[in-house]
Structure formats: structure tokens, C-alpha cells
């Protein structure tokens, strides 16, 4: 799996191992929830502040407020066309607000790393076609998220 991680914010200090954590969570999500796609896929993950994610949330969802994670799938909507031989299948883009991540970790009483893992897994599951529009979908998505995190030692 190709993962591009870009830190576009300056408000939250990241430890050197946070990118490795994001990579592990994304790979585990693909392994558990998107195995049918195989390993030759790519995803970009952008870390932003509340202001940037508010702009995206307003522009794409009509909600002028910050959110914790947004996912933009490349596998929905229009046909992508044929990829050149050997090129990875682009799953899409995940945008995570590190300000929301830090605040939510404090609110929920767990580590920043666990919340960062949760948001990464949640975003990956959306890219893999999971949703939480109904109570049953939400329960299934939450269970899969916890499975991913548990496998990485990030349980509650």
C-alpha cells in the first residue's frame, strides 16, 4: 500500500512515530476490511487544523463547523478509467483535524495516539465503502474500527 501523509498544520506537535502509527492503522484497515482490493492501492492522508477542516466541511458537506475526519473516495461516482499497468488503485483522501483529535482524546479520556488511530481507521473504512447512516451500519463500523485498533494494541 502506498500512503502519502502530509502535515499541513502547525498547532499540534507530532511525535516522530505518529506517521508510523497512521501507516500501521491504514494498512490494518485495508487488511481487515478491504482485502478484496489487494495490496496495490494508494491513499493520501492530510493532517490539518480546525480552520482548514471547517472550510472543507462547509465546501463539501454544507456544514460550517469543524469535524474530526473527512474521507473523499476515488472509488465513488464517475468511472476512473484504466490505470497504467502496475499503478496502485487510488482509494482516495483522508483529512484529519489534529486539533479535534487532541480535544477528543482529552474528552474521551484516552491517548492522542488512540484517537489518531481511531480517526485514521474511521477514514479508511469510509474509503473502503463502510458507512454509518443507520444504527446497524454504525454498530458494524464501530465494531470493525475497534477490531482494527485492538489488533494494534490501541484498545480502550
Automatic annotation (TrEMBL):
Key word Glycoprotein present: no
Subcellular location: Cytoplasm
UniProt xrefs under InterPro entries: MetalPrtase_cat_dom_sf_prd, YbeY, YbeY_CS
Binding site for Zn(2+): 122, 126, 132
Binding note for cofactor: Binds 1 zinc ion.
Pfam families listed in its UniProt record: YbeY
Gene3D superfamilies listed in its UniProt record: Metalloproteases ('zincins'), catalytic domain
Keywords for the protein's UniProt record, in alphabetical order: Cytoplasm, Endonuclease, Hydrolase, Metal-binding, Nuclease, Ribosome biogenesis, rRNA processing, Zinc
Alphabetized SUPFAM superfamilies for the sequence: Metalloproteases ('zincins'), catalytic domain
Domain of life: Bacteria
Enzyme Commission designation: 3.1.-.-
Protein task: Single strand-specific metallo-endoribonuclease involved in late-stage 70S ribosome quality control and in maturation of the 3' terminus of the 16S rRNA.
Database matches in PANTHER family: ENDORIBONUCLEASE YBEY, CHLOROPLASTIC (PTHR46986)
UniProt similarity note: Belongs to the endoribonuclease YbeY family.
Record protein name field: Endoribonuclease YbeY
Source organism (scientific name): Symbiobacterium terraclitae
